[in-house]
Structure formats: C-alpha cells, structure tokens
Design brief:
By secondary structure, this protein is mostly helical. The chain has one domain: Farnesyl Diphosphate Synthase, CATH 1.10.600. It has a two-stranded antiparallel ribbon. The longest helix has 28 residues. The two termini are 19 Å apart.
Length: 207
C-alpha cells in the first residue's frame, strides 16, 4: 500500500508481477492461515481451535491489522499525538505480533490467566517497539541494509516516532518498551530467554 519497490531487498510483489497478483497473493496467504488453524493436526481441542481462529480473525480484521492500516493511510500528512500514533500501531503490525503470543497461550494447557495476561502485555510492548525501531531505521539506515526504500515514510509525510519525539526520544521510547517487555517476563526463568532475546533483537536490529 505504500507502493514501495522493495521488500527484504527484492522487488515487491506488485512490482515483480502486478497489483492484482499482489492482492490475490495476500488474500491466499491470509486464507491459508485460517485453513491451518482449522485443519492442522495440532493436539488441541475443538474449543481451543475456535478461540484461536477468533483471535486471529480479530487481529487481522477491522479491529486489528486492517483497521490500523486504514488509520495509517488516513494519517498521511497529519500530525498525530503520541496516544494516537500508538493506537495506530497497536492495531497494525502490533496486533499480529500480539496474536502470535496469544495463540501460543491458547494452544498450551494449564496457563493461568494472570500469566497469560503478562505474556499479552509483553507482546503489546514488543509490537510497539518493533514499529518504533522501524521508524528509526527509516531515517538512520540505508536502502541496501533495510531491504526497502530508506526515508520513504518521511518523504510521504507519515507520522513517525522520530518526527513526534525526536530521534533521541524515539530511541528512549524503544528502550522503555523493551524494559517493560522484560518486566512482564520477570516471574519466568530461563524458559523465557528466547522471548527476552526477541525483545532485545527488535530494538537492536538494523533491517
């Protein structure tokens, strides 16, 4: 939707093929996600499976990614407040990151509600820190490293964390979100080290 030529260093689908093919590919992949949840041989109950499908549907649709993307498109050229910017990203990529953690909680057995809530808060934090770091890289990195066109958000006058908070403020925001993510894992032992490493990777990544 940002009409970029590159993703991960390769031509975007609509550039390599055409816009219709790109739309159909996205539709097919989203349908495949629900097909896997409905029919994959996971050792879960029918009730768990229904809850997982509902969770992904909300995270993908108007209450999640689609809604966030619509806000993003409407925000071009407008100045958003920090709560408005965070709301946009919570309902964009962040919704799917959050859903991926919640799906694991639903598929598992014996997870207490309080523990699931802490994991949900962790996921919310890393979903936001992912976008903060994206905004930082859009200004500080280069196209070859990013794998997508550098500076495109700024050139399109899209609201970003550096534009709202300054670069130093955006980097501090990413660190604060990382610290909050770790705080929500404090009651876990080494079994959560992968989640801790993931949060750190998100704010240190270069692409």
């Amino acid at each position: 939707m940002d009409n970029d030529d590159l993703r991960r260093g390769k031509p975007t689908c609509h550039i390599a093929f055409d816009e219709a093919t790109a739309i159909l590919a996205g539709d097919a992949l989203q349908a495949l996600a629900f097909e896997i949840l409905a029919h994959d041989a996971m050792p879960i109950s029918a009730e768990q499976r229904i809850i997982m499908i509902n969770t992904l549907a909300k995270a993908s649709g108007s209450q999640g990614m689609v809604g966030g993307q619509a806000i993003d498109l409407a925000a071009v050229g407008n100045q958003l407040t920090l709560p408005e910017l965070e709301n946009m990203h919570i309902h964009k990529t962040g919704a799917l990151i959050r859903a991926s953690v919640n799906l694991a909680c639903i598929a598992a057995t014996g997870i207490e509600p309080g523990v699931a809530m802490k994991l949900d808060h962790y996921a919310k934090c890393i979903g936001l820190s992912f976008q903060v770091q994206d905004d930082i890289l859009d200004e500080e990195s280069d196209t070859a490293t990013l794998g997508k066109t550098q500076g495109k958000d700024k050139n399109q006058d899209k609201p970003t964390y550096p534009a709202l908070l300054g670069m130093a403020g955006a980097k501090q925001k990413a660190k604060e979100l990382h610290d909050m993510a770790l705080a929500n894992l404090s009651h876990f032992g080494s079994e959560a080290d992968l989640l801790r490493d993931l949060s750190l990777y998100i704010i240190q990544r270069t692409h």
